Amino acid sequence: MERREFLRDLTFFTGGLALASSALGNRALAMAEAAQPTPLRAIGFGELVPTAAKNTGETFLSLPKGFEYNVIGRVKDLMTDGRPTPSAHDGMWTFKVGNELRIVRNHEVSNGKVPVAGSAIGTTVHYDDAAAGGTTTLVIDPKTRTIVRDFVSLSGTLINCAGGPTPWGSWITCEETTLGQTVRTSSKGVKSGGYAKPHGYCFDVPASANSAVEAVPLKAMGRFVHEAVAFDKKGIVYQTEDMGSAGFYRFIPNSKKKLAQGGTLQMLAIDGKPQFDTRKGQKVGTNYDAVWVTIDNPDPAEADVDESAVYKQGLAKGGATFSRLEGCCADKKGRIYFTATSGGDNQGGQIWRYERDGRDKGVLKLMYESPNKDTLFMPDNICIMPKSQLLFVCEDGDYPNMESKNFLRILTPGGAMADFARNVSKEFPRSEFAGSTFSPDGKTLFVNLQTAGVTLAIWGDWKNFKN
Questions:
Q1: What is the per-residue pLDDT across 241-299, written as a single tens digit (0 to 9) for each?
Q2: What is the distance between the alpha carbons of residues 420 and 85, in angstroms, rounded to a whole number?
Q3: Do 352 and 363 contact (CB within 8 A), yes or no?
Q4: Which of 313, 365, 379, 416 has its CA 20 to 30 A from that of 322?
Q5: What is the four-CA torsion angle of 377, 340, 303, 5, rounded to 10 degrees?
Q6: Is 185 helix (H, G, I), strand (E, B) or coil?
Q7: Alpha-carbon gap, residue 181 to 39, rounded angstroms
Q8: How far is CA 426 from the centre of its chain?
Q9: Which letter, b or e, does each residue of 365-387 get, where b requires 16 or more Cβ atoms within 10 Å of its Cβ?
Q10: Which residues have a Cβ under 8 Å from the Cβ of 204 and sit 6 or more positions away?
Q11: Distance separating alpha carbons of residues 1 and 7, to the nearest angstrom
Q12: How close are the terminal C-alpha atoms of the chain, in Å?
């Protein structure tokens, strides 16, 4: 079902609520409700209540009682390098660098999908001077949960959506676009592209850097609409693709810790089920034997005009199709969790897990599928709370003609879903959550409200979770 059809059907359903005044309407609604699977719910940390930020007094969140938060890293605020904080905060991660707590944070700036001369966020070192995305690095005081200093750490990239931490203490930031030198013209006559350099790559940003680093595109990792990455214990990099018809990829580097030296890009396929479609008709708990097909040309020139150029190579070899893959993270065992934002029979989202079994095989398992939008709607960035198996899930349900109730949810190992936070900002009520990540000691959860352009530092009694 396309999104337009989904919205049409939703409108039809809500319009039908007027029938409830009749016995027939009541019966029909009761039968429809009974036909829905009963979602497993966990108590979590308790009921959510509107909570003002400790340092500013603004109310952005509803949180469980006993939890507090600070507002930091606000858009347009001057950083300590003299540059204004960029907008569109997205994926990020925390790192321990010496005695410092650091965050490397993405900025999903699109430039209107056209080059804007001089828009790069840094001062000297840029990948593309006409692209306004990139990363900033925040040094945080772990006691006050405020910024000590902050600065641009990557400049001149485009639509930096998510990424993932490396085993060597850096952040892989990913471009969610394949715009490049070719000028595209839509059916409505809207132009995009025309950049000096091709986009659609991953970049490695050391958390220890104290200024903008040289932006080196990791071309062997593929040129597609990137979202997030995660590493397993063998140093293999798993990658998600945010497209309606998307692939799940892995990159086997030629040399560990040296991704720029190349490697092999592959796309997941289901053994014995070529071109398997995971988007509908799936049952939670189902296991699939997974194999990998090699992408012969990970950096195709035609990606300039065809965002699916890499995906089509994998599909032709039998690769599996997912719906809008976004968040991705690894647990302590090296198992990879990833979200299909609009996957599932009601397009509310799916959460998958891949577990490696030998060099070239593994098991793909559907861990969760949204039973309704009130339980989970449009899962995006994810992270696992340290010393636990709790998966924190950001929602990105900001779509036209639909009520936006973006939550930060928690998926338990038993498959139950709990609510942890809700965006209750009056000024930015539709803003998505993005970039959830815990401090290495597990004491602070950092997360962004993207449209609001703020990073939030949340703390409380993390041991008080109830199933």
A1: 999 999 999 999 999 899 999 999 999 999 999 999 999 999 999 999 999 999 999 99
A2: 27
A3: no
A4: 416
A5: -50
A6: strand
A7: 48
A8: 24
A9: bbbbbbbebebbbbbbbbbbbee
A10: 166, 170, 171, 172, 216, 218, 259, 260
A11: 10
A12: 34
